[in-house]
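Researcher: Sequence recovery benchmark, item below. Answer with residues only.
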């Protein structure tokens, strides 16, 4: 498989697209929005637009805090806690559980919050962490959702491929680290057992569908 490296130049995200050297690439999460989520739709209808948007906004805030807190820990930097006591508790528990997982797996973080893109398939995203477990390269994605869903695997495998395409380095381990927002619920650390090559073929199906639907606008 031919490898390509990300060319030098401007790289930034605008909305749900990344602008890379003047060209817009859809984000992985935008592509995967073609996957139907009937449970989420029903939840929004039941609560109503205003209330569901409020809860979603609060969930996004705590997700951002947890991501940033772990990034700071990986880089040996202090994380400025928010004022909200409940959010502080969630963040401290996430960091505690993450530290335990690092000790148990001997994980060594190398890069955090890395923008990756595939020039071959024309998509981009932000990979939460790349590191080593023993001698094996691993990619990790952090979640604060209520569970780990199939589309989470597709999201991480898309980052996996983009990282491989950019660097020529093939990660052999793919981990989803889910940090709970519920006080009495443990964090969940999940190594994807399926072949990443097979999963990536499924992601390409989603990409093809997203591209087709967009072309009809």
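Model:
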């Amino acid at each position: 498989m031919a490898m390509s490296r990300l060319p030098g130049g401007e790289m930034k995200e605008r909305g749900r697209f990344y602008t890379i050297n003047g060209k817009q690439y859809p984000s992985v999460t935008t592509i995967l929005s073609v996957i139907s989520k009937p449970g989420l739709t029903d939840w929004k209808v039941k609560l109503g637009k205003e209330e569901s948007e409020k809860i979603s906004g609060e969930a996004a805030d705590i997700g951002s805090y947890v991501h940033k807190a772990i990034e700071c820990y990986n880089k040996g930097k202090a994380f400025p806690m928010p004022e909200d006591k409940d959010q502080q508790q969630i963040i401290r528990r996430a960091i505690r559980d993450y530290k335990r997982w690092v000790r148990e797996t001997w994980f060594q973080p190398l890069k955090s919050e890395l923008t990756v893109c595939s020039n071959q398939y024309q998509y981009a995203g932000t990979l939460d962490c790349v590191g080593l477990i023993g001698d094996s390269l691993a990619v990790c994605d952090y979640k604060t959702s209520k569970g780990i869903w199939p589309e989470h695997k597709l999201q991480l495998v898309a980052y996996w491929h983009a990282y491989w395409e950019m660097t020529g380095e093939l990660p052999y381990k793919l981990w989803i680290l889910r940090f709970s927002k519920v006080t009495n619920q443990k964090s969940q650390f999940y190594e994807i057992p399926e072949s990443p090559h097979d999963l990536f073929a499924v992601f390409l199906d989603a990409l093809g569908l997203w591209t087709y639907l967009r072309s009809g606008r």
